[in-house]
Design goal:
The chain is an alpha+beta fold. It is 29% helix and 29% strand. A 5-stranded mixed β-sheet has the order 1-5-4-3-2.
Length: 89
Amino acid sequence: MKVYEIAFSPKFLKTAKKLKPNLKEEIIERVDLLKNEENHHKLKVHKLNGKLKGRYSFSVDYKNRIVFTYLDANTIYLHNFGSHDVYDL
């Protein structure tokens, strides 16, 4: 079982501070699942294309998603969080 460390971009942290408590809790739960590679299928982690090629995404809920990259073999870097406009980096 592969377990990742999670790093957060300043933009991600700034966005997260403004969220309602119930959505913050959902993000914390999803990010905790993301740490374990076995959960990536459950989270429906997928590669992005176009200008976001090389990045990945997964949904937090029906509306919101998180965009990330693998910094190295042990670290996931969370870039941003939001609705589909999150893809406009």
